[in-house]
Amino acid sequence: MLQAPRFIVAAPFFFLRENAMPRILIHACCGPCSLMPIVHLRDEGWEPSLLFFNPNIHPAWEWERRRDAIMEASEKLSVSLMVEGEPQNPGAWVRRLNGVVREGARCRLCYRPRLDLAAARAADLGFDAFTTSLLYSRYQHHDVIREEAELAAEKHAVAFLYRDFREWWYDGIRMSRELGIYRQKWCGCILSMGEALRMQKEAEQIKTAKKAENAARLAAEAEERRLRQEALAAKKARKAKRREQRLAAREA
User: Fold this and answer.
1) What range does the domain containing 120 cover?
2) What backbone torsions phi and psi does residue 107 show, to the nearest 5 degrees?
3) Domain count, the chain
4) Is residue 154 predicted with pLDDT exceeding 80?
5) 23-27/80-83 β-pairing
6) Is residue 235 part of a domain?
7) Which strand ranges, in their side-by-side order, compose the sheet holding 129-132?
8) 90/78: higher pLDDT
9) Could you tell me if residue 60 is inside a domain?
10) Is the pLDDT reported for residue 88 higher than 90?
């Protein structure tokens, strides 16, 4: 059950203008992922606006950081923004999944309410179409996003614009760093947070193991060099001793 809308509006909205570009509402999952959709949709001739509605983001402080990041992106790129909803209890969110917690399967249930509200707002506010910044991420399930968005578009009688923004992945990363926008370390929900932490721990363990392996290899190579140098020194000493013995025999 969605909560009653709670709007925080950053930058003014203009809904009735003559000779305006077609307007598109971008569901914004976060600040960094929204940059390339804004830039490239503008290049196509669209006038973008943003909607931040992400009840999947946990915990509350993370939701607030991402809200602040999208507001910062909105200000720096001069694009209108609506913020709806507020942080939700992660336990209640997981219970609503009804046991569907596997990555991939649960993601559809995560996309659905966000895309449905985006479609509803686009229709209510007279936008020409809607889309989502989720389509920028290499880690999201694009086929599922497209299916859910098209269902929402049909339900609310508004156009959904599909674009694959992943080709500008590194451009978006560079731009977010240049703008100093907060970059999150997990997808959103408490489950993905746990998965990300486990992956981070595994990566750190692998990194530690590789460091130890490299250190052992370097130590073995150093020991091998030392033994070679000692053997070479011993060989030189034997040669020198034989020369001395030959000289002594001649003098005798």
Assistant:
1) 8-188
2) -65, -35
3) 1
4) yes
5) unpaired
6) no
7) 8-10, 80-83, 47-52, 23-27, 129-132
8) 78
9) yes
10) no
